[in-house]
What does this fold into?
Amino acid sequence: MGVIRQNWIGIVGLIGLCIGMPLPHGILQNSINLVSFIALVLYAWLGKNEFFTYQQSIVLIGAVLKMLNVSDLIIASVLVIISLVSVVKILQNPVFRVWYTGVGFIGLAGFVYGYATLNPIAYAVAGVASTIYSFISYSKGVKSAFLFGILNIIYGSIALYLVFSG
It folds into this structure.
C-alpha cells in the first residue's frame, strides 16, 4: 500500500474522531468512533509504528467494551492487563528504552483510566502526554507520529474543553 493511501487511512481516522468525539453518546458517535479507531490502528500498523499500534489497539478495545455496555470493573481489568502486556512488549524493543517512552506510557495510562471511568481529566492527561510523545517521536524520525501528534492536540484540546466547561 502506498504512503499516500496509508496517510489517507490515518486522516480518515483523525477526521472521524474530530466529528465523533463531541457528539452525544449513542449509536452515531459509537459508529463514527469505531470506524475511526480501526482506521488509526491500521494506520499505525501499516506505518510500522509499534507504540501507536499498541496504544490505538487498546483504545479500540476500550471503546468496543464501552459500546457493548461491559461493566467498568471488567473494562478496567481488561485494559490494565492488555496495557501491562503492551508495555512489556514495547520495552522488549531497545529503541523504546528512552525517557520519552515514559511520557507515552503516561498517555496510555490516561486512556485506560479514561475509558474505565469516562473521566475527562484522564482523557486530557492522555491527550497532552500523547501529544508530547508524538512530537518527540516525530523529531526522532518516526514519520507517522506527526499525524498522531495532530490527533492528540485535537483530542487533548476537546478533553480540556470538556474539563473546563462542565
About this structure: The chain has seven helices and no strands. The longest helix spans residues 145-165. Residues 50-165 form one domain. The chain has a mean pLDDT of 90.
